[in-house]
Amino acid sequence: MWHDGRAIRIAVVGGLRVPFCRAHTRYADCSNQDMMTATLKAIVERFDLKGQTMGDVALGAVVKHSRDWNLARESVIGSGLSLRTPGVDLQRACGTSLEACILIGNKVALGQIEAGIAGGTDSISDAPIVYPDEYRSILMRSHRGKSLPEKLRPWLKLRPKHFKPVLPGVVEPRTGLSMGEHTEITAKEFQVSREHQDQLALASHLKAAKAYDTGFYSDLVVPFRGVKEDNNIRRDTSFDKLAKLKPVYDKGGTGTMTAGNSTPLTDGAAAVLLSSEVWARKKNLPVYAYLTHCKVSAVNFTDSEGLLMAPAYAVSEMLKVANLKLQDFDYYEIHEAFAAQTIATLKAWQSEQFCREKLGRNEPLGPIDLAKLNVKGGSIAIGHPFAATGARIVATMAKLLHEKGSGRGLISVCTAGGMGVTAIMEATHRA
Predict the structure, then answer these.
(1) Model confidence over 151-200: pLDDT tens digits?
(2) For this structure, is 21 an active site residue?
(3) What pLDDT, on the 0 to 100 scale, is given for residue 429?
(4) Active-site position among 205, 335, 384, 402
(5) CATH architecture, domain defined by 179-215+292-425
(6) Active site includes 30?
């Protein structure tokens, strides 16, 4: 266990990312490998790792081409690290790069490696487009043909319909509902108002804009393809502007979720450098914070529970192990897949019934201080390249704790498939 006093402490040395951009805008011609390699290069340069061998590099993407079957290793090869540095691909939907941090953290904690990099990337602009299975079957039968007639015969079944592309799906295979449609159900169940959602969305934009203006992101975001700032941040938005947007997931008159209070489809990449304290000292690198706890959970979203509510369960179990209360944190980074999802999670923790019946607790976890929530902006403003968000959040939390000089941060990320990935980070007091 990370916190049992026997494991090696997992130091978060720092993290970097390229600016996140709305899909089909500034990174329209970029691939996952382009963005991930650029991010790793920035890590290599920032922490003076040129030609050095890392213990491992764990990376992932949710939306991948077949050509990206070895994305992590290929990105490592182009990064400037020693070619002796291995790379491993992994994927846990929107929790991918937080899961990558857990994987690298486990290896550090067990002494298997001294240092490694965790990260993720996603490009919606470069999403793979495939053709119907019937067309693929024709191609494969032709390929298997031993003679010219056998190779040509399958093509006699070719029809115009075979050229209609099959775009990447955005629905849950088990339910046929999109993530937004699922969250509308959750919003109604927890009575999340449209006004509350728009308020959270507005705060996300205002806090992100202020963070850039005050220089908070100057050492967390590196320019890429001429972009210096996340291009989804709406500096000129207002509550009135958000209130005028129409619901997009439930248009029957009771919908509350709009494009303004939902996360946009986004392109981007992020990565974090993790190590032992000894390795960091040898390299004369500061330790910004430590990963101390983690928990992954899943819910039965096909029948009785909200698709994005798994973090509510994971956080509860993680707090039990850590012997902490929900209020024992200086910062909370809760991924804003949708404003409704974030609010529903907060309301679940305050619900005596939910905490008793679902979490097995005798009393509610209670409220948090909203002034400590996503203090530098959340995913609604910054954007959400699925596999990159966890690393973005870890890097942000590490800097927040480092600047404070002490304290504790809670991270919560919901994912497709009814899963949640959560973690606790801590910083020790600086003398």
Answers:
(1) 999 999 999 898 888 877 778 999 999 999 999 999 999 999 999 999 99
(2) no
(3) 61
(4) 384
(5) 3-Layer(aba) Sandwich (3.40)
(6) no
